[in-house]
């Protein structure tokens, strides 16, 4: 239930604007990879190409290849909806469906996929997913209450439960803690550590300490200049990137000298 991601020479465009250029990298199964870099360098754009989510923006397209255990996500006949089922995503702002109960929120992705489950199977899946997202104990007595009644941190864990309910192989997280308080942030960071036992995890974060705490591998992105495409400057073990990076730009960013 965890897959290897290989990206080969990826360019990403919004219409004529090349937002990201020439990215090649590998993410091993059951690891956490953090994407860091200054605002506008294309981290969100790039992470969205790993499950074809950028395609919801008219005019957005890629050149290059993204392989999941060797299968090209952009190959002919590949259905982007299927890709998003295999490669789940959690966004910056917790976005549970406000009118749905906690239980219905967890099941939303499964229902969207047209899967029919018996009452027992649904109850099992809800419990398993909420346990997987470290939320079960806090909500087990109010599964029929609205998801919007939870705290921000709980809502984000509910979104993670919704993502894992469809049994993805990869979980992408785009600044999942940026709207959360420090205690909820720690809860999500702990959860990321647990998720990597089963899934390949990729996270965009502006928080350097967070990248250092949660990731095995860190990728630093940067822009040559405003209006130029973002590029991957350096990728390596998080320990190396934070202690002894090869590139001066990486060191300057990590030590807070720019960005
Ligand atoms: N929907 C869009 N249409 C056109 N250009 C876009 C769109 N979204 C992002 N861009 C541009 O693509 C470039 C990369 O943006 P992106 O949001 O991926 O950067 P980022 O590194 O994630 O930034 P931040 O850290 O501020 O979230 C920027 O120049 C941005 O203006």
TrEMBL record:
InterPro entries: AAA+_ATPase, ABC_transporter-like_ATP-bd, ABC_transporter-like_CS, P-loop_NTPase, PstB-like. It holds the Pfam family ABC_tran. One of its GO terms (biological process) is phosphate ion transmembrane transport. GO terms for molecular function: ATP binding; ATP hydrolysis activity; phosphate transmembrane transporter activity. Residues 5-254 form the ABC transporter domain. SMART domains: AAA. SUPFAM superfamilies: P-loop containing nucleoside triphosphate hydrolases. GO terms for cellular component: membrane. Gene3D superfamilies: P-loop containing nucleotide triphosphate hydrolases. Keywords: ATP-binding, Nucleotide-binding, Translocase, Transport. This is Phosphate transport system ATP-binding protein. It comes from Microlunatus parietis.
């Amino acid at each position: 239930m965890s897959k290897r991601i290989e990206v080969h020479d990826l360019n990403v465009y919004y219409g004529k604007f090349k937002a990201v250029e020439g990215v090649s990298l590998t993410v091993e199964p059951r690891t956490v990879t953090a994407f860091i870099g200054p605002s506008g360098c294309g981290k969100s754009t790039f992470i969205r190409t790993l499950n074809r989510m950028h395609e919801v923006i008219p005019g957005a397209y890629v050149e290059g290849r993204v392989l999941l255990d060797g299968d090209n996500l952009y190959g002919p006949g590949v259905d982007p909806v299927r890709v998003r089922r295999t490669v789940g995503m959690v966004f910056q702002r917790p976005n549970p469906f406000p009118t749905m109960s906690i239980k219905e929120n967890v099941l939303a992705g499964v229902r969207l996929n047209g899967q029919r489950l018996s009452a027992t199977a649904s109850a099992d899946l809800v419990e398993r997913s909420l346990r997987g997202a470290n939320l079960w104990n806090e909500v087990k007595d109010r599964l029929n209450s609205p998801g919007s009644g939870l705290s921000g941190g709980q809502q984000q864990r509910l979104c993670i439960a919704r993502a894992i309910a469809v049994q993805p192989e990869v979980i992408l997280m785009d600044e999942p803690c940026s709207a959360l308080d420090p205690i909820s942030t720690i809860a999500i960071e702990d959860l990321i550590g647990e998720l990597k036992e089963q899934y390949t995890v990729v996270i965009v974060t502006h928080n350097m300490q967070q990248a250092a705490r949660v990731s095995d591998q860190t990728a630093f992105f940067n822009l040559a200049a405003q209006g130029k495409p973002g590029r991957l400057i350096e990728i390596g073990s998080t320990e190396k990137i934070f202690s002894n990076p090869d590139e001066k730009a990486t060191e300057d960013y990590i030590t807070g000298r720019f960005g």
